[in-house]
């Protein structure tokens, strides 16, 4: 009986640990926020929430069935992967989806001369159609647990010329989860720092500092994760081409989604859009 | 036939051709006709009056035969004769021109070499032909091959000439004998002229001087069995690593339907081999062969067909061609109007090609550009080039999805001139901002495009169609379409590639343009022109009307190891820069000559805007195979802007390097290097059969005659009646022609026979 209780306690502890973000600020202070310049502009540009039935089946393509892939030169594509996450089982990939993607496209098209499909586009990693979209975006990969077909699909995708943008995962525990998954894709490719002299930081905007972009709920705090250092890392293929860019301890997606909210600091949304534009321009030319 | 004619008419046909027919009777012809008419009337009357068993018809027939008989007698009494101008014996000269080239050593089917005729008929003192000629004429002998000159006797002939120039031989003989009474020239040759000098230029003076040329054709009209490797069509310069496409023309007689190997060798190493199926006898077959050459610099590539069993001539089975492998890094400017994946994957495809520098200028926002692979920070810092000097630095230009309104009018004209004047390659890609959809109709660039633009569709969404791409028959043999597979696998490879898309409906090419790839799809009303090109001015323009060729790399149906996309773009860009001229370009009129032969070096000089320069100082530094250097000034030809030329004579055997430098006002405009190979030639063994048509033409146009060794015996007599030189008038009687006697007998016999048949006697 005591052994059963111990097991039960350990299980509860494990569950608690898995569900925790792993990085907790030491203190939380209420902060009064002034509306930063530009936020009103961003608020005006944001489209109303679109109630499109784009979240029916988490295992299928998300594009409007009336849309033929290829009409537009660019589709902002989100990776659907198996795993777990804060939003419930298997929906970690859908963080900020679809508003974040749509919001991102609206502003991105104003910044960059990009002939882009206006709506979200989510594709499973094991779907052959993924190869139709050479840039794919994966978020909250701290809850990733890819199936073998997904691993193979992602590997083939990257080997063929695809580019993976990873975003919005925090702390050592989530890093370990992601690293475990990406090592299944590329066991022998090291994950390296993308230093500020890399061309990606000057592909469109000149970025001189890597910032920690907080989620909307943490935006009023000085930092989402005290002691966490934001990193931009990457993986190169055998030909020396950057094929994966990893935004760790930062949440670009939330900045894209909430840029129009006056509470969201302009500093972070600006950085997030700059990084977004740079990543896309870089990935479409390298 | 001639003998029969001469038997019947007493003299050969040439006498009747050259002479004038007349009647020599003392009384006038009219009086004789009156007498003939009276006799004829009396004859008819006598038959009319006569009675007996004969009917009117009988009397009519017999009267007619008798009248004809009388007519023949009257003709004889009129003393018909032939007035002829004949040469005065020993008062005139005849030039004997004897072919002294290597082809005269070829053996005919009877096993005897062609020069054996010359030895028997002209080099031997016992020759009857030579004796008859010597009796009537003063003979002057000439030898000719690529050069011509007097010889004292045919015994000096050596048959070492490596080329034959008939025109030069006629000119030399005519000029040497212009001061003497010349009855004619006798040219003894197989007629295989391989210097390609127009004959008419030499025949006209002979016609004007009234000098007939009598040609004696030696050799067979068709050498059988024989295979000949004729023309090799190969570029004179290629970029290192390029796949060479070479066409070899093969003709044969006696090997119809056989297959032979065509072997390509580079410095004694076999680099390619192709099995060729030969066509019908006498019909040329074009064999296309693909290979790559390694290394940089001048190379000598040999093509040969191993001698086949029973083949008569083996030395015409091989040819060598000079080619220069260029190691330069060719700069290509790719201007893209918006971020597209085409940029990414095209760069990836050519990234490892060390001979291509793909400079990308990508517009990312209004007045904002991303520059990739530029040489330094100043290159394209203000966007698309605004001057010819800046644009012409590139050898090729690729325009992506960029609308025409982005460019100024001057820039549009500059793009057109980039192709027509600079000679650059222009590639236009499909996209929302391309072709008619990008407003390119009515611009100066539209003229350059190989495709015809039609007004964009009214659909607010714009045209969009999926396209299945297929090579056309022309595309199946084009290097850009081969995708690195054997020719018989090209269509299958293209069928395996996924569909792509287009937003530019184009179904028509310009006259003179060639379609290499076409497309079909459910959304296409007409067949889509996918890849087409045309020559325009000094350059070429290519249209690739699809917008996402990168799918041939990324699509899930394409295996990761498939290199079709990479090969396609590597070949496309190499094709784009192939043949693009430099501002200073030097070329020799031939890439291989014999030691001692003159070579013409022509240099085209332009400035950085490729405008022809006429006041440049151009120098050619010629380095011989043994390292002897000679500097020659190259002068403006005056006939054409920017064209300079000089003639030189390489004396050594081997490879010559010719480096040309052009300067103006102390500033170097540019330089170029070309190579020349000197070696003994085997041209005499190519097309070595007798050229009867050429020899007949020479004879006919000058008033002479063509002979073969079998009928050359009449030559002395034929020259006698040409009327050239010092002549006298001869009157030849014709009344005693056997033909007239036979006519008399025939009519008499016919009347007697008729009487017998009709029972009148």
Secondary structure: elements and pairs:
The complex is a heterodimer of chains A (286) and B (761).
Chain A: H1 2-19, H2 39-45, E1 77-80, H3 99-111, E2 121-124, E3 135-139, H4 148-160, E4 163-167, H5 171-185, E5 191-193, E6 231-236, E7 242-248, H6 252-258, H7 266-283
Parallel strand pairs in A: 1-2, 1-3, 3-4, 4-7
Antiparallel strand pairs in A: 5-6, 6-7
Chain B: H1 2-9, H2 13-18, E1 20-23, H3 29-49, H4 56-77, E2 80-87, E3 92-99, H5 115-121, H6 128-136, E4 137-144, E5 148-151, H7 166-176, E6 182-189, H8 200-209, E7 213-217, E8 226-233, E9 237-239, E10 243-253, E11 259-266, E12 269-277, E13 285-292, E14 297-304, E15 318-326, E16 330-336, H9 341-350, E17 356-365, E18 368-372, H10 388-391, E19 396-399, H11 409-420, E20 425-429, E21 465-471, H12 490-496, E22 500-502, E23 514-520, E24 528-536, E25 539-544, H13 551-554, H14 564-577, E26 584-588, E27 592-593, E28 599-605, E29 617-623, E30 629-636, E31 643-648, E32 654-664, E33 667-678, H15 692-702, E34 706-707, H16 715-720, E35 727-733, H17 738-758
Helix pairs in contact in B: 3-4, 4-17, 7-8, 9-14
In short:
The complex is a heterodimer of chains A (286) and B (761). With 286 residues, chain A is an alpha/beta fold. Chain A has helices at 2-19, 39-45, 99-111, 148-160, 171-185, 252-258, 266-283; strands spanning 77-80, 121-124, 135-139, 163-167, 191-193, 231-236, 242-248.
């Amino acid at each position: 009986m005591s052994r059963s209780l111990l097991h039960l306690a350990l299980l509860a502890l494990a569950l608690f640990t898995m569900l925790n973000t792993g990085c907790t600020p030491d203190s939380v202070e209420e902060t009064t926020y002034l509306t930063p310049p530009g936020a009103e502009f961003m608020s005006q540009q944001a489209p109303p929430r679109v109630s499109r039935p784009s979240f029916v089946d988490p295992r299928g393509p998300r594009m409007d069935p009336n849309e033929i892939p290829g009409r537009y030169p660019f589709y902002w594509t989100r990776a659907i992967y198996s795993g777990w996450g804060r939003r419930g089982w298997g929906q970690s990939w859908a963080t900020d989806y679809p508003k974040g993607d749509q919001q991102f496209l609206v502003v991105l098209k104003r910044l960059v001369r990009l002939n882009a499909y206006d709506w979200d586009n989510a594709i499973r990693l094991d779907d052959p159609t993924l190869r139709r979209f050479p840039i794919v975006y994966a978020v909250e990969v701290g809850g990733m647990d890819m199936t073998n077909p997904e691993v193979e699909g992602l590997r083939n995708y990257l080997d063929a010329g695809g580019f993976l943008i990873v975003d919005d995962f925090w702390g050592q525990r989530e890093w370990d989860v992601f690293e475990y998954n990406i090592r299944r894709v590329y066991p022998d490719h090291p994950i390296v720092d993308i230093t500020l002299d890399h061309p990606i930081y000057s592909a469109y905007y000149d970025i001189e500092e890597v910032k920690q972009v907080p989620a909307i709920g943490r935006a009023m705090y000085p930092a989402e994760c005290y002691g966490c250092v934001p990193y931009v890392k990457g993986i190169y293929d055998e030909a020396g081409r950057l094929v994966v860019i990893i935004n760790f301890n930062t949440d670009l997606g939330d900045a894209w989604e909430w840029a129009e909210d006056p509470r969201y600091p302009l500093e972070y949304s600006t950085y997030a859009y700059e990084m977004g534009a740079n990543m896309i321009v870089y990935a479409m030319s390298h | 036939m001639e003998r029969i004619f001469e038997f019947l008419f007493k003299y050969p046909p040439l006498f009747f051709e050259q002479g004038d027919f007349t009647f020599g009777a003392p009384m006038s012809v009219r009086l004789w006709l009156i007498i003939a008419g009276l006799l004829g009337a009396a004859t008819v009357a006598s038959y009319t009056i006569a009675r007996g068993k004969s009917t009117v018809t009988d009397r009519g027939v017999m009267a007619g035969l008798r009248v004809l008989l009388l007519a023949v007698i009257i003709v004889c009494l009129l003393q018909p004769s032939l007035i002829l101008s004949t040469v005065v014996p020993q008062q005139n000269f005849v030039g004997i021109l004897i072919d002294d080239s290597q082809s005269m050593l070829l053996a005919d089917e009877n096993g005897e070499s062609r020069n054996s005729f010359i030895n028997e008929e002209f080099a031997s003192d016992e020759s009857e032909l030579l004796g008859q000629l010597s009796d009537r004429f003063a003979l002057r002998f000439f030898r000719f091959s690529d050069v011509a000159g007097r010889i004292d006797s045919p015994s000096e002939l050596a048959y070492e000439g490596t080329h034959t120039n008939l025109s030069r031989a006629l000119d030399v003989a005519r000029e040497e004998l212009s001061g003497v009474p010349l009855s004619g020239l006798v040219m003894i040759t197989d007629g295989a002229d391989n210097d390609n000098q127009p004959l008419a230029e030499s025949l006209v003076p002979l016609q004007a001087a009234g000098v007939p040329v009598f040609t004696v054709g030696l050799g067979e009209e068709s050498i059988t069995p024989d295979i000949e490797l004729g023309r090799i069509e190969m570029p004179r310069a290629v970029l290192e690593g390029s796949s060479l496409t070479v066409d070899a023309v093969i003709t044969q007689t006696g090997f119809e339907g056989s297959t032979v190997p065509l072997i390509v060798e580079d410095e004694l190493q076999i680099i390619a081999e192709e099995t060729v199926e030969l066509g019908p006898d006498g019909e040329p077959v074009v064999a296309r062969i693909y290979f790559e050459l390694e290394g940089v610099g001048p190379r000598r590539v040999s093509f040969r067909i191993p001698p086949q069993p029973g083949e008569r001539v083996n030395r015409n089975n091989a040819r060598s061609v000079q080619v220069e492998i260029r190691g330069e890094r060719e700069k290509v400017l790719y201007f893209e109007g918006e971020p597209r994946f085409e940029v990414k994957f095209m760069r990836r495809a050519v990234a490892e090609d060390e001979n291509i520098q793909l400079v990308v200028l990508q517009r990312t926002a209004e007045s904002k550009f991303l520059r990739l692979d530029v040489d330094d920070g100043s290159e394209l810092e203000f966007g698309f080039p605004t001057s010819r000097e800046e644009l012409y630095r590139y050898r090729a230009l690729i325009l992506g999805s960029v609308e025409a309104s982005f460019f100024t009018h001057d820039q549009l004209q500059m793009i057109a001139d980039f192709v027509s004047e600079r000679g650059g390659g222009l590639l236009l890609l499909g996209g929302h901002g391309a072709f008619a959809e990008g407003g390119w109709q009515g611009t100066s660039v539209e003229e350059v495009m190989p495709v015809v633009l039609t007004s964009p569709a009214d659909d607010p969404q714009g045209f969009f169609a999926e396209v299945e791409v297929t090579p056309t028959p022309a595309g199946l043999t084009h290097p850009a379409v081969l995708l690195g597979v054997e020719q018989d696998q090209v269509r299958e490879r293209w069928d395996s590639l996924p569909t792509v898309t287009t937003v530019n409906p184009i179904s028509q090419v310009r006259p003179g343009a060639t379609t290499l790839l076409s497309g079909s799809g459910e959304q296409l009303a007409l067949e889509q022109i996918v890849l087409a090109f045309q020559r325009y001015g000094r350059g070429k323009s290519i249209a690739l009307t699809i917008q996402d060729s990168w799918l041939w790399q990324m699509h899930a149906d394409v295996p990761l190891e498939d290199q079709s996309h990479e090969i396609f773009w590597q070949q496309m860009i190499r094709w784009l820069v192939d043949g693009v001229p430099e501002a200073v370009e030097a070329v020799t009129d031939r890439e291989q000559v014999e030691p001692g032969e003159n070579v013409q070096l022509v240099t085209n000089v332009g400035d950085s805007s490729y405008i022809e320069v006429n006041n440049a100082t151009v120098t050619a530094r010629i380095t011989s195979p043994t390292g002897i250097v000679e500097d020659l000034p190259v002068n403006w030809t005056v006939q054409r802007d920017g064209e300079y030329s000089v003639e030189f004579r390489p004396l050594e055997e081997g490879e010559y390097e010719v480096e040309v430098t052009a300067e103006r006002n102390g500033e170097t405009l540019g330089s170029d290097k070309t190579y020349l190979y000197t070696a003994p030639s085997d041209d005499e063994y190519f097309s070595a059969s007798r050229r009867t048509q050429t020899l007949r033409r020479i004879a006919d146009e000058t008033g002479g005659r063509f002979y073969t060794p079998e009928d050359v015996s009449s030559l002395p007599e034929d020259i006698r009646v040409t009327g050239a030189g010092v002549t006298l008038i001869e009157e030849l009687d014709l009344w005693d022609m056997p033909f007239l006697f036979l006519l008399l007998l025939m009519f008499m016999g016919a009347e007697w026979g008729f009487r017998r048949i009709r029972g009148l006697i």
